Amino acid sequence: MDALLQDIVRQCRPYGALGKVANYIPELSKADPDKLGLCLIDSEGSMHCAGDWQDYFTMQSVIKTLILLLALMDSGIGRVRSLVGVEATGKPFDTFNYSDQALTGANINPMVNTGAIALCTLIHGETYGEKFRRLLELTRYLSGDDTLEVDEAVYRSEKATGNKNRALAYMLKAYGMVSDDADEILECYFRACSIKANCAALARIALVFAHHGRDVTTGEQRFAPIYARYVNATLMTCGMYDGSGEFALRGGFPAKSGVGGGIMGVVPGRMGIGVFAPALDKKGNSLAGVNALELLSEALELSVF
Amino acid sequence: MDALLQDIVRQCRPYGALGKVANYIPELSKADPDKLGLCLIDSEGSMHCAGDWQDYFTMQSVIKTLILLLALMDSGIGRVRSLVGVEATGKPFDTFNYSDQALTGANINPMVNTGAIALCTLIHGETYGEKFRRLLELTRYLSGDDTLEVDEAVYRSEKATGNKNRALAYMLKAYGMVSDDADEILECYFRACSIKANCAALARIALVFAHHGRDVTTGEQRFAPIYARYVNATLMTCGMYDGSGEFALRGGFPAKSGVGGGIMGVVPGRMGIGVFAPALDKKGNSLAGVNALELLSEALELSVF
Amino acid sequence: MDALLQDIVRQCRPYGALGKVANYIPELSKADPDKLGLCLIDSEGSMHCAGDWQDYFTMQSVIKTLILLLALMDSGIGRVRSLVGVEATGKPFDTFNYSDQALTGANINPMVNTGAIALCTLIHGETYGEKFRRLLELTRYLSGDDTLEVDEAVYRSEKATGNKNRALAYMLKAYGMVSDDADEILECYFRACSIKANCAALARIALVFAHHGRDVTTGEQRFAPIYARYVNATLMTCGMYDGSGEFALRGGFPAKSGVGGGIMGVVPGRMGIGVFAPALDKKGNSLAGVNALELLSEALELSVF
Amino acid sequence: MDALLQDIVRQCRPYGALGKVANYIPELSKADPDKLGLCLIDSEGSMHCAGDWQDYFTMQSVIKTLILLLALMDSGIGRVRSLVGVEATGKPFDTFNYSDQALTGANINPMVNTGAIALCTLIHGETYGEKFRRLLELTRYLSGDDTLEVDEAVYRSEKATGNKNRALAYMLKAYGMVSDDADEILECYFRACSIKANCAALARIALVFAHHGRDVTTGEQRFAPIYARYVNATLMTCGMYDGSGEFALRGGFPAKSGVGGGIMGVVPGRMGIGVFAPALDKKGNSLAGVNALELLSEALELSVF
């Protein structure tokens, strides 16, 4: 297995030169496009790693997975589902192109920015500071990594350049989908996107989803199985932006990417995977990361199809 | 002439019951739907009025006419034209439905909110407070009414509920079309929309546009003729929201409406008209106002076609 | 006047090299991009010409003007207006991008292909062959040119490559806006687009519109003034495709262009103009033609604004 | 197992009254909304049925599954993938709303009409008659039901009312995506949609997909495993129209619905399912059918997530 992972890393590292590090958040553009890390944990809890798997990067959209989970845990499926739909939009993740001005929950999903921003309001907490702290705690808890923290430089960069997200938040307010202060919601969202993790952390979080909320080492049920299925299904249809259909073909399992270069892969009943490679394809998915997951899927027959 | 105007007011007043007073700005919903005022000033400066022509109301989108004019006077046609296009959008005035995320100047015009907000940045002034004061002064100057002021209650109401405009302003920032602080730009824009005027004031402003910047009573040239033509042409194709095509048929001259119920009509070379009736049709144009202008156009052959 | 026209032709001929002859209809791509003709007829019936004003070209979208007129004459304003709206779409002339599948009359106008195809059904005639013959006769009658005929090669080329128009016609059927056989309607439409005219013919047609249906030489009223106003207003807001707003600024009078390179200009109460120059700008308007009309408008103060 | 299926049928039959039988194809509107059939075949080939599982109905969009398969078998993944993409569109299955007129393969998928029509061109055959016969033979072969035939009345009804599909076919031609005669392609497509099947036939086809092309009873490999994965993945993300995301949550396995009321469910490695209930929800999926599959999924833990 270790040889396989190292082989995959070796084969896929050259993709770094073909992709493009995210530059709309200036701080992200400093990433090294040649980085590639891979970490896999199986049902027995055995971890296999290769490449730059210990490097930390900001989770960016990967955190949408946990925003959705925490909203489900705090507010239940009914409220989550009525606020934010579950259909792929056929559009880029940060689109504001809603026809006939009809922005409704049915037209967004938890994996596009609009949906994730809206779901922040369903996380419990007196203040958005508290909501964020609870999200960070959940991330640490599921990843088993207590050192996870916000990358302050990336956070400031997100905040400084996050005008499209501000536009989306005010659209949500304009259509009565959220009522809280836009700046406070965004503060929580920008901080969430800026949480640093590494491949091992993503793999451990993914492993819990893969086992429907159960920790395979302790046997402890960390959250309801139904929430895991909700998240996994959503990742399958919407997790890889408007490249989710292609990833269903190439990878064949639920996954969530972020423009920081991370991808969290959930193989139901079998394993959790974390990948990191900051150079992205045109849709915002890690180019080397997707290719690595495709090779891994072929080698280990990970496709659920 | 006075008999004609009174007859028109009498005929059109019942439309108040068929339209709907704007309610997305709570303060506007207090307007009396039965109000109808009409004022007309001809090339000799003779003024004819009927109905509630002395009533004050907030200009709302009518002020877009003067935002465009002042941007032209301060920054010139080149800069105005490159920031904001001149084509009808085929969409509601407050749309954020820009396909493929491609918000460019070519896809907006000075008479939709996005365009008017953008043009505020081309008005001269150290601060947005100063920009606004210069706009208010221009409005007073052209209307000959020094008492024009902001309706503070409406302004606060606009500001409190202006989330769609906030979304539009942040979209402009996200696409690099404006760089100033969104809140400051909007402060100027919300105040501008809240300037109170009456039919006489609108008619006097319109009269100057009708005579290409020249004051017919003093002979003074108040702004360059080319700016008047720019504004008049833009009103013709975009002034009545996505009902501009229909008004070209029914009225046949440049006009600008506002959700406060006012319409400013410019009959090139002939007259300036102000109408006020707060109940609106589905597109946001004063229902009784449009009907009054149609009757007036037929009676006096005002169509330029 | 003749010197002015010749000067304008000399100044504008170089634009031929900057535009692009239409090539989506193969036969049109054979046009000579250096051609430029100009013809103007005033209220006294005096004709002034310059350049290639005698050259024949296919009317293409210019014929939409007469399709609308004949539909109005045959079926009245009520039926025309309820089938096809009058608002600019903000989209290219051959778009099929109708949001939420809601193709309704309100979202199209007589100057986009969808609208013009729909209006063919309102022309009287037992068969579409007869409808077309009546349209051709009207074109000959208004232009005073009995030699006007279909360019058979262009017609066959249009028919062979007119798949987008076929798509639009079937959309109209799918939404219940037309019920006749799509092929027959299109036969009429393709033939209409392929009628050859020259600048003199366009100028004479325009002159009748400019005088509200009256023939200035004979004094005869050829059609109701209200139909002329309907057409003129529609040309102002929609006649130059999604460049109508810009032409309102630069030319300032109703005009209709075609991808054959012709433009018909209507200056209400004053003159009719025909221009021809086959190299087009990006929106499908004759590049040299628009520039020639702009110069003419400045020199003779033709803007209605 | 049989008790379970009967219980599900009993529980779900009332949904027939809440949905709506398809009426845009007149012949389909004659279906009995109270019908509900269910058939399930497991990996050992054991078949379990309940309700109206022997009733025949037209496959409609369910046949898109086999159009895709046959295009893959005949032309390979490369050509299929380059002609038609794999991303959910976020739009209804028969939309022609393509922004900026940019209809490209990347914006469609094999499960929307435009994509399925395009894929007909990749099926081998000298004529479209032959292409269709090969498709019908494949359908009979995989279903093991040699009696499958076209429902001629439905076919004629589809053809008579298929104007939206004609519009889509001409769009494909206009954008150079297909070059064959539109009427011939549609003849094949309309016939394909009109093939009658019953729940047992759908379940047997699904079973082959569930076992990656292998016939579990004979062990014979009927088509390449990679094509099964391609189809299954596409069904997961796009098979239930713009309700695919919701079905991923509720059912959790690849499935394809048709407006005839049929749904084919593929549970990879485990079973094939056929359901039939003609009353549809707003997105065009069988209402009782989806509910039945949800109950079945819960009872047998069929979700792949």
Describe it for me?
- 4 copies of one chain form a homotetramer.
- In chain A, the strands form 3 sheets. Chain A has a 5-stranded antiparallel beta sheet. In chain A, strands 1-9 form a two-stranded antiparallel sheet.
- The longest helix of chain A has 20 residues, at 64-83.
- Chain A is 45% helix and 11% strand.
- Chain A is built from 11 helices and 9 strands.
- The radius of gyration of chain A is 18 Å and the shape is globular.
- Chain A has helices spanning 2-12, 64-83, 113-120, 128-143, 152-161, 163-174, 182-193, 199-210, 225-238, 244-250, 287-300, and strands at residues 20-21, 37-42, 47-51, 57-58, 196-197, 255-257, 262-267, 271-276, 279-280.
- The model of chain A has no long low-confidence stretch (mean pLDDT 95).
- The first copy, chain A, is an alpha+beta fold.
- Chain A has 2 domains: 2-60 and 197-300, DD-peptidase/beta-lactamase superfamily (Beta-lactamase); 63-193, DD-peptidase/beta-lactamase superfamily (Beta-lactamase, 3-Layer(aba) Sandwich), CATH 3.40.710.
- In chain A, a hairpin with a 4-residue loop joins strand 2 (37-42) and strand 3.
- In chain A, helix 4 crosses helix 8.
- At the A-D interface, helix 9 and helix 10 of A face helix 9 and helix 10 of D.
